[in-house]
Amino acid sequence: MATTHDIDIGEGALALEARNVSVYYGKKRAVSDVSLKVPANRVVALIGPSGCGKSTLLRCFNRMNDLVEEARVEGEVYFQGVNLYAPGVDAVEVRRRIGMVFQKPNPFPKSVYDNTAFGPRLNGYEGRLDDLVESSLRQAALWDEVHDRLGVSAYQLSGGQQQRLCIARALAVKPEIILMDEPASALDPIATQRIEELIYELKQRYTIVIVTHNMQQAARVSDYTAFLYMGELVEYGPTDTIFTNPSEERTEAYVTGRFG
After folding, report:
1. Model pTM score
2. 3-state secondary structure the chain
3. What is the tens place of the pLDDT at every residue in 27-64?
4. In a domain, 136, yes or no
5. Which structural domain, as residue segments, surrounds residue 37?
6. Is residue 138 part of a domain?
C-alpha cells in the first residue's frame, strides 16, 4: 500500500488535490493539515466518527466553508491546476463546477421542473431547457417516475425522490465533481439502495466525494476511502485495503467497530 496520505492514481487522472488543509472555527481547529488526492471518475469516501472533520473537509472542496461564520481555511485545494483559495477565484463558479448534495433532501418550494431548471436559469443557460431538464432527471434515475408530473411541487415526492431531484438539480449546471454529505442518512433502506446504485452510475461521468457514517455503504460504493479521526487524516487508500488490511491500528479499530 502507498503511504497513509498519498496513493498512486496514475498519470493525468487527478480531479482534486488537497494540500495541507486546516480548518478553524474561531480558535477551534476542526481539520488539521490534511493532504489527499482525489482520482477522476472515482468515488472517494470520507469516514470517521462524528465530529472528526469529514463534512468540514468536504466543504473545503467547493468553498462552502466560506459561508460559515468564523470558519477559516488554510492550505490549498487544486482543481484543474488552480488553487481554489487563490485570490481572484470566483467561489460561485467553484460551486457550479463542484456541486454539492446535502444530508437531508432540500428541494426548493417549486415544481419538479423548476427545481431542476433553477441553476441553468440563474446562469443564463441558452440551450433547450426542456432537454436539459430531461437529461438531468434521467441521469438522476428519476425521469421515469416524474416525467408526467413535472409541474407538481417537489414536496409531493417521496424522500428518496426528493434527494434524487436534488442530485438532478446539481447535475443540471454541468459540474465536473459532485460532493455528497451523507446523502442517504435520512432515507429508508430501499431509497438508500437507489442512491447507491445512482452513485455507481454517475461515476462513469463524474468524480464523487461522499461523506458517510455507514461503513458498509462506504465499502459498497467507493473506490478509495479516507479515515479521519479528530480532524486528522489517519489513512487513505483503496477501499478494499482500508477495510481488509489497513496499515494503521486506529483504522482497523474503527472499521471493525471497536470504537466510533
Report:
1. 0.92
2. CCCCCCCCCCCCCEEEEEEEEEEEECCEEEEEEEEEEEECCCEEEEECCCCCCHHHHHHHCCCHHHHCCCEEEEEEEEECCEECCCCCCCHHHHHHHEEEECCCCCCCCCEHHHHHHHHHHHCCCCCCHHHHHHHHHHHCCCHHHHCCCCCCEHHHCCHHHHHHHHHHHHHCCCCCEEEEECCCCCCCHHHHHHHHHHHHHHCCCCEEEEECCCHHHHHHHCCEEEEEECCEEEEEEEHHHHHHCCCCHHHHHHHCCCCC
3. 999 999 999 999 999 999 999 999 999 999 999 999 99
4. no
5. 14-106+176-255
6. no
